[in-house]
Specification:
The protein is mostly helical. The chain contains one helix and no strands.
Length: 76
């Protein structure tokens, strides 16, 4: 025979609730900073070209938008 379960939730005020929330929030911030450091350590630190020197693309043209004709077949 299967049991019938009923879930009951209610808010319970605790005197240390604010401190517990602050500790949890600080932990999340610390974990995210640690994760960010790991990601930065994995990524190359400088955009190096073939000669090992940093490359600058100041005058490179950047255009917003999509080239819709690139993926379309020509009309016949």
């Amino acid at each position: 025979m299967k049991r019938q379960w009923h879930v009951h939730r209610e808010a319970v005020e605790r005197s240390d609730g604010r401190q517990r929330w602050d500790r949890a929030y600080q932990s999340i911030l610390r974990w995210s900073l640690e994760n960010e450091r790991v990601e930065q350590a994995r990524a190359p630190s400088v955009d190096a070209g073939a000669n090992g020197k940093e490359e600058y693309h100041e005058s490179g043209g950047i255009r917003s938008g999509l080239d819709l004709s690139a993926g379309q077949a020509p009309d016949h």
